[in-house]
Amino acid sequence: MIMEDFVIGIDLGGTNFRLAVVNPQGIIADRMHCPVESGRGKEVILEDLISSIQTLVKSQIPNQGHLLAAGLGVPGLIRSEEGIVTESPNLQGWINFDIRTPTEAALGVPLAIENDANCFAIGEFWRGAAQDANHACALTLGTGVGGGIILNGQIWRGTDGMAGEVGHMVIETDGLPCKCGSRGCLEQYASATAIRQFAVEALMSNGETLLKRWQDNLEELTAEDVFEAAREGDKVAQDLFRKMGYFLGIGLTNLVNLLNVEMIVLGGKVSSAWEFFIPETEKTVRERAFKVPAQRVQIVKSILGDNGGITGAAYLALKRARSI
Amino acid sequence: MIMEDFVIGIDLGGTNFRLAVVNPQGIIADRMHCPVESGRGKEVILEDLISSIQTLVKSQIPNQGHLLAAGLGVPGLIRSEEGIVTESPNLQGWINFDIRTPTEAALGVPLAIENDANCFAIGEFWRGAAQDANHACALTLGTGVGGGIILNGQIWRGTDGMAGEVGHMVIETDGLPCKCGSRGCLEQYASATAIRQFAVEALMSNGETLLKRWQDNLEELTAEDVFEAAREGDKVAQDLFRKMGYFLGIGLTNLVNLLNVEMIVLGGKVSSAWEFFIPETEKTVRERAFKVPAQRVQIVKSILGDNGGITGAAYLALKRARSI
């Protein structure tokens, strides 16, 4: 593949980072990923990040590739204008960390940074499921629930760049405690963590279920196992996804009534279980939201999947390269 | 007072409409109000509305006033571009009602129409508490809870002009039934209706309270009576406002986490009881929302009060006069 200009899009998570060479049309070429040992300190992670980028850049020399910029999605609170990570729940010690200055110095090109869920939303808007929407929300249903809001084709960052925390919308005033310090957040009811928790509770009752395999080994039970059981026809496991789908529907109802968006894109690991939760989600939105905006909104599955964040980061890299 | 150009701003409610002469700087001159008998059909209300406007216009003849346009805030779902009321819960038979065509024909000037809570938000943004904010939410705490969202100085209407339904954000997934057909809507916990309902429940228990006056006459008990008791130092009544303030704080937490606005303006009748509910609301937002956006947001009382809707409607009238 002969390339000319390209950017690097990076999706930094709590356990690994993934990065890719992306062309100006948003097509992903080479990719790689590296583990993140968040305990080893931010300097070490930054070094790994920079050397991975340099490895990918070198791989483009035979293609006569020219690096324009890099874009980085980080879980947590970001001051994207300044290139600073305010705080990241999954990355120890990343507090008011200026990641832009050392990275730009090492690479010699601009670095764009943004919240990872916002990158996902931008990716889906640019090259994914929301290409035809002007106003959309995108949610990543993973260990937690991330969110990004696109209004008039622009990510809505809010006054401090911290808008879009859909996972921390309270849907049960005195509900389950959340790691953010609040209670009853959507994240506690519509994530992999929630599915696991629902399964642990279901095992306390006496119904017949394949999940009983984990009865003496609850620590090991994952949302993935529940999904597996659901696919094998286990009614209890399927009910847990319906329950999660119901709560998700309440969260989406709130987005629909507040923002009247055209589209909601759902991604993240949990979205693999689409057929088990989406009918209940759709039903709940139709029942609970106002009729016109509920009929308007399309609830769709992510097209880019794992590449959504990388693609959005690449978009921001291109934008930053062009604006400097 | 010598006026030249002016507009008429109108706030149409389920029980009365209020209208005023407003100058291009947003200053209200003459005002009047009329009862609405929603059972008498929309044609009768429209006639009353038009003749009231004409009365006010005539009153400006001695001032050599010149009517530019009229603006109308209507409770319900509005297609403002088309000048059509899609549906109004408080106005019987107002379904897909083109109010613009007959009104413009009768008055000979343009008519702007908008949802009443959006008018309130625009009014507070133009001439009230949110003048210095770029991004703000405004809530009317009355019989129900209305809402308007201002982003980048513009009302956020959404795809179908139906965004901003803050009162119908679910904060208790399986909570109290709401007249919108959903359950657990903020409106059921942070309105005059909610205060009344909390009081009725409180009377079931045996505490000492001034509210006991209504024990055999529960139908007559109003939120206003509860406010009166709170002002007389009644602890039970004061607790009810704290409870309402707590739920309101949950609703505002969601707005803060989703939109990261600079300001939230609270108006409507219930906001008179400010000192009894706002400490709990503020505390809840600080505890439950993310730190940075929670510190950012200012929660303030409406400056325009009852005139907020009229002022916003007048703003839209001016805008429409200038765009035609």
Unreliable residue stretches of chain A: none
Arrangement of strands in the largest sheet of chain A: 3-2-1-4-8
Q: In total, how many domains does the architecture of chain A comprise?
A: 2
Oligomer: homodimer
**Beta strand count of chain A:** 13
Name of the CATH homologous superfamily of the largest domain in chain A: ATPase, nucleotide binding domain
CATH fold label of the largest domain in chain A: Nucleotidyltransferase, domain 5
Descriptors:
five-stranded mixed β-sheet, Nucleotidyltransferase, domain 5, alpha/beta, homodimer, 37% helix, 9 helices, 2 domains, 324 residues
Structure explained in plain terms:
The structure is a homodimer of 324-residue chains. By secondary structure, chain A is α/β, with parallel strands linked by helices. The first copy, chain A, folds into 2 domains: 5-121 and 307-323, ATPase, nucleotide binding domain (Nucleotidyltransferase, domain 5), CATH 3.30.420; 132-302, Nucleotidyltransferase, domain 5, CATH 3.30.420.40. Chain A has helices at residues 42-59, 100-107, 116-127, 192-202, 223-231, 235-259, 274-288, 291-296, 308-323, and strands at residues 5-12, 16-22, 28-35, 66-74, 77-79, 84-87, 95-98, 111-115, 136-141, 145-151, 154-155, 263-267, 298-301. In chain A, the strands form 3 sheets. In chain A, strands 3-2-1-4-8 form a 5-stranded mixed β-sheet. The longest helix of chain A is centred in the last third of the chain and has 25 residues, at 235-259. The radius of gyration of chain A is 20 Å and the shape is globular. The relative contact order of chain A is 0.15. Chains A and B meet through helix 6 and helix 8 of A and helix 6 and helix 8 of B.
